[in-house]
Amino acid sequence: MLESIAKSGAQIKSQQKGEPDLTLGEKLGILNELYHSKPLIFLERYYRHLQPEHLTCFQHLAGSYEVEFYCAEIHRNNSQKNSRTRIKNKRYAALQGLIREGEYFSDERMRSRDPLLYEQCIGQYLTDDEVMEQNARSMSESRCLSDVLLSSYQEQLIQRKMELQQEREEGAEEEEEEEEEENDDEENEQGGCFATCVFPPQYF
């Protein structure tokens, strides 16, 4: 337990600027002294760095409201950490699965998810030969008339989505320009006011 806290980065002792960092042995000595002399203060100060398996070290304090509170906090913090870890692992596994399938980052999937971003980052730099190759590959994957019709419909949806994205982007740019013009007008008005103000002569 003591070594876990000492290596956690928790502040063990208040130090002045320029003082050398405490060694692991010094940290362990300070923690050991505090634990045996003032276990409740020890628990209050370092409960965020403790794990449920460390709680057996505080069994001799059972019955204290403060101890029960900090023990409950240790269990709660550990549960939240485990939950966040499980979520991260699940998302990572899902992403790895998509990568293994080889389709998530394909041109078709990226263009379908965000047509405008794809066009800005990739599409506009494709050569005519590369565009023709993409079209030929798409046609070769269409095995029957229904596939061709579906592909054509999906292309229409992508084009419409890109148009809407462009409209939103242009609208945002226009709003920014209008705000800049308004700010410039306000600054010009303030400058004109200062220029036309007549200050009374100074008397000495």
From TrEMBL:
Pfam families: CCD97-like_C
Residue ranges, annotated region (Disordered): 161-204
Source domain of life: Eukaryota
Domain CCD97-like C-terminal: 89-189
Stretches with biased composition (Acidic residues): 170-189
PANTHER family, sorted: COILED-COIL DOMAIN-CONTAINING PROTEIN 97
Protein name as catalogued: CCD97 protein
